[in-house]
Amino acid sequence: MRRLIALPILVVGTVLTSLAIAAPAQAHGYISSPPSRQAQCAQGIVTNCGDIQWEPQSVEGPKGLRSCSGGNARFSVLDNDNKGWRVTNVSGTTTFNWVITARHATSTWEYYIGNTRVAQFNDGGRQPGPTVTHQVNLSGFSGRQKLLAVWNVADTPMAFYVCVDLQIGGGGNPPPTTPPPTNPPPTTGPTPTNPPQTGGTWRAGTAYQVGDQVTYNGVTYRCRQAHTAIAGWEPPYVAALWQQV
Question: 13, 6 in Cβ contact below 8 A?
């Protein structure tokens, strides 16, 4: 009798393990403006990037690293300083805009140039909103610099890594591509949605399904992940959700 019971349990355990292994990785977040290296790959500004062009939000690795790829071999192209990354002119205080596609409880956000931590923002374990904005003082640096941003998750040993190429002292900061509020509070009720639309103009508050097509500023995009649109997730700025057609 014991053998008859043990066998179904073993089979169920094997099936569950297989499903866990096959499950797709959850989306997370990255800097959309100034355009980070993974954002440039996802938007086709830089080509031949490999897997990162489909997963700009997934550069995850153990805390304490100082690499653009987060130690992830699949995304090693991000560590190549000679790839031809587009450099953004900034001066003084610069605004960095994150797009968050999985809102992990957060301990800190850190910004580094070389071995110098130029800014830190402590969230104390709070859950971020769908977009996060930080203003970082870069006045102590000049010329071309590679900035590393780190999002430290509060309840796991992991962090997310983003590199942004900057020319400090070369002009004003580009306009933000996400709304100005930092860490907007999570909604407490269901998000109002409209029926999915194909071929229409992108609109916040609309529920989009994989394969839906919309236009934004005269450009057509195809939905890559089902979601309900919000301000700050406009198609050009969220490559994890939209692909230009």
Answer: no
Quick one: 198-244 is in which CATH superfamily?
Answer: Carbohydrate-binding module superfamily 5/12 (2.10.10.20)
Q: Which pLDDT score is estimated for 170?
A: 56
Q: Which pLDDT score, from 0 to 100, does residue 143 have? A: 95
Does residue 127 contact residue 107 with C-beta atoms inside 8 Å? no
Over the stretch 118-174, which tens digit does the pLDDT of each residue have? 999 999 999 998 889 999 999 999 999 999 999 999 999 999 999 999 999 854 444
Element (H, E) at 223: strand 219-223
Q: What is the pLDDT of residues 13-23, one digit of tens each?
A: 443 333 333 33
What does the alpha-carbon distance between residue 165 and residue 148 come to, in Å, rounded to a whole number?
9
Question: CB–CB of 57/240 below 8 Å?
Answer: yes
Q: Please report, for the chain, the start and end positions of each structural domain, with discontinuous segments joined by +.
A: 28-168, 198-244
Q: Which CATH architecture has domain 28-168?
A: Distorted Sandwich (2.70)
With 0-12 CB in 10 A as exposed, 13-18 as middle and 19+ as buried, what is 87? middle
**Alpha-carbon span 44 to 56, nearest angstrom:** 12
Backbone angles phi, psi at 15, to 5 degrees: -65, -45
Report the distance separating Cα 158 and Cα 176, nearest Å.
Answer: 27
Q: How is residue 245 written in tokens? A: 């057609």
